[in-house]
Amino acid sequence: MASSTPTPTPTAQNVLLPLIIPHLTSVLRNSAHLALALPVYAYNLLTYIPWTTLISPVTYLLAPLTTFIYIILGLTLYTPYQFISWLIRALFPLYVFCGVACITGGLLGLGGRILSASIVRVVSDEIGYGHYEETKNADVDVAERSAKRRRLDKKDRVKFGPF
């Protein structure tokens, strides 16, 4: 006699699936409803509770850090900036005065140079090139070339030293 073991029938396996499907669809439907309703509930909660209720504990926890950052920024950024801006405001009139003085001095010097050059041209019959260009390559001693540049004769020149 042969003993046989009962084999599960295909109908026994299929019986479990119809029992799970209603629960599975219910879980999916409720999770979709929660996912869609969660932003609405969060918005209602946040508009109902004042912000100070939520922020107040956070500010108490972060107070040492914010105070430390405020002190560091005050020492490294705000104080030097205020000092430099005060110094610039204090020295601005001196800056303007020196700028105007430099511009005026430059214009007066240029005007004096032009005026003296025109007077020299009128009084003397100087050629367009100077005496230095005449004797630049010649074998002339430095004192003589300097005397020619100054238009002095050798007899009128005052000698300094053994030159």
Describe this structure in words.
- Among the domains are: 22-53; 88-153, no CATH class.
- The chain contains four helices and no strands.
- The mean pLDDT is 80.
- The chain is elongated and about 145 Å long.
- Helix content is 76%, strand content 0%.
- The termini are far apart.
- It is an all-alpha fold and 163 residues long.
- Keywords: Membrane, Transmembrane, Transmembrane helix.
- The chain crosses the membrane at residues 32-51, 58-78, 90-111.
Q: How are the SSEs placed, and which strands pair?
A:
Layout: H1 10-48, H2 51-123, H3 131-134, H4 142-149
Radius of gyration: 51 Å
Low-confidence stretches: none
Please state roughly what percent of the residues sit in beta strands, choosing from under 5%, 5-15%, 15-25%, 25-35%, 35-45% or over 45%.
under 5%
- Fraction of residues in H or I helices: over 70%
Run of helices and strands:
HHHH
Number of strands: 0
Structural class: mainly alpha
Largest sheet: none
Q: Quick one: overall form?
A: elongated
Query: What's the rounded overall pLDDT mean?
Result: 80
Q: Roughly how many Å apart are the termini?
A: 150 Å
Number of helices: 4
